[in-house]
Amino acid sequence: STSDSVVTLLDYGAGNVRSVRNAIKHLGFDIKDVQTPEDILNASRLIFPGVGAFGNAMDVLNKTGMAEALCAYIEKDRPFLGICLGLQLLFESSEENGPVKGLGLIPGTVGRFDSSNGFRVPHIGWNALHITKDSGILDDVGKRHVYFVHSYRAMPSDNNKEWVSSTCNYGDTFIASIRRGNVHAVQFHPEKSGDVGLSILRRFLYPKSQMTKKPGEGKASKLAQRVIACLDVRANDKGDLVVTKGDQYDVRENTNEKEVRNLGKPVELASQYYLDGADEVSFLNITGFRDFPLGDLPMLQVLKYTSENVFVPLTVGGGIRDFTDANGRHYTSLEVASEYFRSGADKISIGSDAVYAAEEYLRTGVKTGKTSLEQISRVYGNQAVVVSIDPRRVYVKNPTDVQFKTIRVSNRGPNGEEYAWYQCTVNGGREGRPIGAYELAKAVEELGAGEILLNCIDCDGQGKGFDIDLVKLISDAVSIPVIASSGAGAAEHFSEVFAKTNASAALAAGIFHRKEVPIQTVKEHLLKEGIEVRI
Ligand code: 1PR
Fold this sequence. Notes:
Elements: E1 6-9, H1 18-26, E2 30-33, H2 37-41, E3 46-50, H3 54-64, H4 66-75, E4 80-84, H5 85-88, E5 91-94, E6 100-101, E7 106-112, E8 123-127, E9 130-131, E10 146-150, E11 152-154, E12 164-170, E13 172-180, E14 183-186, H6 194-205, E15 226-235, E16 241-244, H7 266-276, E17 280-285, H8 297-309, E18 314-317, E19 323-324, E20 330-331, H9 333-342, E21 347-350, H10 352-364, H11 372-380, E22 385-389, E23 391-396, E24 407-408, E25 419-426, E26 431-436, H12 437-447, E27 451-454, H13 468-477, E28 482-485, H14 491-500, E29 505-508, H15 510-513, H16 519-528
Parallel strand pairs: 1-2, 1-3, 3-4, 4-14, 5-7, 15-17, 15-29, 17-18, 18-21, 21-22, 22-27, 27-28, 28-29
Antiparallel strand pairs: 5-6, 7-11, 8-10, 9-12, 12-13, 13-14, 15-16, 19-20, 23-25, 24-25, 25-26
Helix pairs in contact: 7-8, 10-12, 14-16
């Protein structure tokens, strides 16, 4: 391959950059990995997808001599694209575990979003941009949304305004992209922003095409509500990995054979949902609690193949915990998660293990730093860690009957009960635990979860709508984003959950698998109801 078709990638090994690699390959380029500072200086175009924490990244860049090479490269106005932390590192310093000094090329400091004004942190999801100058690479963006996931941001000021090419509003107006000459950086993730993201990368990689179009009239908007397609995956009795779907978590057919319900092939369905406009795709390996996921190579294959063609965020859950295999080899939950990230996941989701961690934390009041939740969020950032809750509604006569947070329910229980609490379960709903969804949600937020995937066993597969009482309870209790799940049966159920609760996203499985309501129909309905969505 000629140098014309090569992209130099600066991956200092702190996290998952597979998505960026996949997007570059998809656009017809080969990747050369930076091994030495000279590789930076000799690059014909350099992409720097910063991942992990600011301080750690600067340490590595300084120790390897890459910080100096990066500054020299950028000062010579060589083609550069920084992504996310790759934008932040260009500034003077960051408050993240700091202050920590940055590369100092752009005036300004990077600070944390303020969650006290009602905006959930991390900022996760799709926003439109306010384009402030001709940025070249953003020419196709216009009013379309791009995908953000971050807790820290740089702010525009008089000192850096010559750099700023677009801003975004999320509580604060922050810098969404910068451009000076051939130097570009974006706070959002083009590699996870669907079509529009690929076009941004294409314009960076093929700069000649930048001349063809006037810059779009971008206008900042509210954060879009996300629609997520979920694939529950497990091996069927023949050993093939299939997408399945339960009724209240029971995935077996109502026949004598009781075979595992088979709704299709995971890679194909995920690609279809991406093309249909899903804002994210989640895989839950529902038997991960008993089958070791690293023994489950097909799941890793599914992620690898899916991430080659799906350019929106991918979440995977199931079986993330410490494990000793049949040969006595011990794996930490962090190793399991790392393998998922390496295979193409952008976020991992923890179910059962987060319940045990929360119980322990509530009992002792001590954060040990050793739970899977804490370890994975420390290494990959809390925006990469979802906690999946599988609660079951338990009706009670009096709120004082139980030690858990109860709510007054909208629909009374079978014996006229007016109250309920939501009991957490583990092992795919098989075992109830002495902790409520409310207590769990607050505890895991403190332990480092970046998002909550809130299922409801009672509603799962019923098609009667989300459990509004539950979603309201949890989305009001925490300041991280909450994904409402279980029970969607019609487009109206999505507008209902967004209108009545503070959910940031709504997830469904059955209606999409059975092709009852296409994702596009859900989006159009939400738009008609005045709810911001990515179209
Ligand atoms: O405990 O860390 O190994 O994680 C296991 C994961 O697998 C958890 O996230 C848990 O929610 C999930 N899981 C376990 N058993 C089942 C099951 O169905 N038997 N599926 C299961 C959870 C629930 C939703 C479903 C929505 C929407 N599935 O993800 O997709 O309820 O469905 P609907 O739109 O059809 O109503 P660990």
